[in-house]
Amino acid sequence: MGNLTNVSVRNLRIDLGANTVIDELDLDVRAGEFVVLLGPSGCGKSTLLHSIAGLVDVTDGSIEIGGEDMTWADPKDRGVALVFQSYALYPTMNVERNLSFALRINGTPKAEIERRVKRAADMLQLGPLLARKPAQLSGGQRQRVAIGRALVREADVFLFDEPLSNLDAKLRTELRRELKQLHQHLGATMIYVTHDQVEAMTLATRMAVMKGGAIQQFGTPAEVYARPENLFVATFLGAPPMNLLHGRLEADEGRLRFRGPALDVDVSAYPFKGTPDPTRACVLGVRPEDVRAAGAVRPHDVAWEGRLTLVEPMGNHRVLWIEHQGGQIASIDQDKTPLASGAAVPFSIDGAHVSLFDEETGARI
């Protein structure tokens, strides 16, 4: 194995007691990728990561790392390095000793230890902190040390289990950027677990959205965001999440339209997966940035009217919440025109950027 190491999970099943946490899961991580496992608490993402690390026994299936079957290999023989959510630093050792501890107990030559520690310290800007103990470090600095402890292993695959969740928002942003730069510098294979969609969208070359021990969709962040495979993915990603409008498809003078309560959207150009059923009950999904409202509605747009219930200023944009037919529709715009809560506002939907889902199954159609 080397830096260019792939990970292949096949038909993985993991039972914890009487509960099946993961069932018949497949995952292919290409060499050099930064893959993010994203999902809510309890979806099985950390269990999947720990099974790759060898910390959780599999019930069935296989795990290959670098083309070698590692399903039952000892964790130390898998060529992986794991960074946990907790720093787990030795409080009586300084940063240099924390970084070098595993190498020292493995009998690594002193010159090699010094080389690896210096390399990790330089990458993570830990040089001035090598003599300090964990109690003298900030939370962000401690997490850097924990990452550095994995780096000195010079592993083939780096595994991260929600490493930034204990940090405040500013530190998370800083370390997120540093992790991305670290991946670009190393070119190593990395698998990262998080429930934070911003981390997933910004870090991943590809992301696997998980629910109930299964992967709902696996693709680039842009693909998953723009073309969610089902209603769960559509609503899990995005802040605010995708607007969902219920109605049905109808054919009208050679055009295919989505019609709902006081809504009529031309979806003739929609890339259906098969032949569309013109009487099908379905759900139209549209991202808030594809809903134009108030002054952003263009003269030639087909517009509807709703009642403004809330304006959320977000700095470089604002979120408008519009009540329409008893539901709430979110619109993101950059207009600075003052709007009063309760006012009637027009809104339009960009029909070129919608998703359609089966009402019954929730799957993309």
Automatic annotation (TrEMBL):
One family name in Pfam for this protein? TOBE_2
UniProt cross-references to InterPro entries, sorted A to Z = AAA+_ATPase, ABC_transporter-like_ATP-bd, ABC_transporter-like_CS, ABC_transpr_MalK-like, ABC_transpr_MalK/UgpC-like, Mo/tungstate-bd_C_term_dom, NA-bd_OB-fold, P-loop_NTPase
The record's section on CDD domains has: ABC_MalK_N
- Is Cell membrane one of the keywords UniProt gives this record? yes
Q: Give start and end of each ABC transporter domain.
A: 7-237
- Molecular function, one GO term: ATP binding
Alphabetized UniProt keyword annotations: ATP-binding, Cell inner membrane, Cell membrane, Membrane, Nucleotide-binding, Transport
Tell me what this protein is called.
Sn-glycerol-3-phosphate import ATP-binding protein UgpC
**What organism is the protein native to?**
Paraburkholderia hiiakae
Lineage of this protein's species? Bacteria, Pseudomonadati, Pseudomonadota, Betaproteobacteria, Burkholderiales
The encoding gene is ugpC_1
